[in-house]
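Researcher: Please predict.
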Amino acid sequence: MATVETDSGKLVGRAGRFNADLKRLINSNKVDVNQLMPLKYKWAWSHYENGCANNWMPSEVPMNKDIEVWRSDQLTDDERMVIMRNLGFFSTAESLVGNNLVLAIFKHVTNAECRQYLLRQAFEEAVHSHTFLYVVESLGLDESEVFNMYNEIPAIARKDQFEMELTREVLSPDFTTDTFEGAQAFLKNLIGYYVIMEGIFFYTGFVMMLSFHRRNLMTGIGEQFQYIMRDESIHLSFGVDLINGIKAENPELWTPEFQERMIDRIKEAVELEIAYAKDCLPNGILGLNADLFRDYVQYVADRRLERINLPAQYGSANPFSWMSETIDLTKEKNFFETRVTEYQVGAALSWD
């Protein structure tokens, strides 16, 4: 087969076959980014297959019992506020993640198998946004109240603003990852969205909402949050692999100064999340209060720091031992109730 020589000296087949070494996670502009084969980053394809196997839709989850509970006097005012605050935060946060994926990350990740996963994740973010609309409509909630909380509730607004700053930077018309500064900014964006938004900010809400499910209350919402958390576990694992992969290919980016900035940024996120927990739980509800969430958020943050090879900062224990039955935060694997774990479609190929 005829070949041509690229700028890097690699021989590339005219029919599209090329050396996998040409593939890079970012700044691989000389390569046809739609060329999946040969697979270089098999972890990316594995995450894609896992996501496809876990396909679900919110409308498949019955909400009859939730509607009955919501219309009754079984929930206190404080419990209703917890539910409302989390619906308000997640409804905006999922759209922010989706926008960042489509408008920022997808553009600058130049590897085909990673892009394949990003397309799958973007669909899942759309499903999650659909979930909150489905819940709001099912319970007959005031849509404007829920979907405008990012403007009205300071604890939610501060978290959203913290993340939107990262997207604005990467969406600048002059932004490129070809420069040292640009590549570092992109890495900061990935840490902000995967490690902080999906890896820290989301987990407080998961505990709050699943605490109702444990008490056999709002079971439809609880089931949907189990599905969402399972998706987010894969999102987080993919994001960590992507971050660590970019670091390995571009070690000059991972300077001591940059590492310190990322630690400081995660510490700032922890304080924002603790403030959010206090806002949601001014008086506490059964088994949950703001003090417990301080330890929990710090515990989760330490696990996230370790995943990207940064030192743990807090040493706090997990105060919600029951969450370990739902998700093992150290290994990022999910162990849900039978119906959720068994809800999978399709077959999985093995790339040994």
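Model: The beta strands are 3-5, 11-13, 327-328, 333-334.
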